[in-house]
Amino acid sequence: MLTEIFIVLGVIFLLSLLGYLIPQLIVQFSKPLDLQNRYGGGFVFITGGNSGIGEAFAKKVAALGFNLAILGQNEERLNKTALTLHEINSQVRVITI
């Protein structure tokens, strides 16, 4: 009797898990996100964009064609990063803060 109850509970759990996972997998693998059409024309705000991870992320985002607003503590390095971003994609607008 107790074994049958646990079997039923296990089946219910697995079905509910599949009911959640299958739609997630369909959305995830059905088509790639087209971020440029969805968010194009707007700005991506990046903190710490003048060095390290922030700078690397800014370069990736610039290569995708998004406009950038980068925030950093060192104005000289910010301007250098802005020039680098324009070299990556000349059509990208970069605002330094």
UniProtKB/TrEMBL annotation:
Pfam families: adh_short (PF00106). One of its GO terms (molecular function) is oxidoreductase activity. InterPro entries: NAD(P)-bd_dom_sf, SDR_fam, VLCFA-Steroid_DH. The chain crosses the membrane at residues 6-27. Keywords: Membrane, Oxidoreductase, Transmembrane, Transmembrane helix. The keyword Transmembrane applies. Belongs to the short-chain dehydrogenases/reductases (SDR) family. This is Uncharacterized protein.
